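User: Sequence in, structure out. Go.
Assistant: Echoing your sequence, followed by the structure tokens.
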Amino acid sequence: MRVLLANGYELVVPAIGCSGLPARTLGDRDAMLEMAVHNSERLNGPDVDDVDGYVGDVASCIGHFKEYATLAGDDRLVGDRAKEVARLTTTATELLARTGLTCALAPLRWKVAIDL
């Protein structure tokens, strides 16, 4: 979040839940769909209507959000929103790689790895 802010992004942090990937992995399709529908509902409203994208940092979860069009796109209540969430979702790394950095980054104190 600090890197995005330092690069000029305005952030809105909506209250959403798990993407549903763990339920999918465990074979609980109903729970997975319930989470996809819930999150699609939460990503609709005055707090997020004007956002240009949905950004996260956990590649597996973000990848699952990107599948909401397929998972919940046919839902009669949130299908359109699920498709929009899928279309606008990206990882912070993908976003910054696409748009470029506008600020200098300081050296890290640790060596890190990121799951992409």
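User: And one key feature?
Assistant: The beta strands are 54-56, 89-91.
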